[in-house]
Write a structure and sequence with these properties.
With 56 residues, the chain is mostly helical. It has two helices and no strands. The chain is elongated and about 80 Å long. It starts with 10 loop residues before the first helix and ends with a helix.
Length: 56
């Protein structure tokens, strides 16, 4: 039977575990809904000439 491998001490893991005990688990990240871009028009702002033509 193989020997059980010893876990190395990690200061970062110890600090995080201590913080979780005191403060609690962090809130899960929110998912941001990204609207997919359609065509090249969505990538660039309209030019001044186009804005003037649309307003007339």
């Amino acid at each position: 039977m193989a020997k059980k491998k010893k876990e190395e001490f990690s200061a970062a893991k110890a600090v995080k575990a201590n913080a979780r005990e005191r403060v609690g688990q962090p809130k899960p990240a929110r998912v941001v809904n990204d609207v997919p871009r359609t065509g090249r028009q969505a990538k660039h702002k309209p030019k001044m000439e186009q804005v003037i033509e649309q307003s007339e």
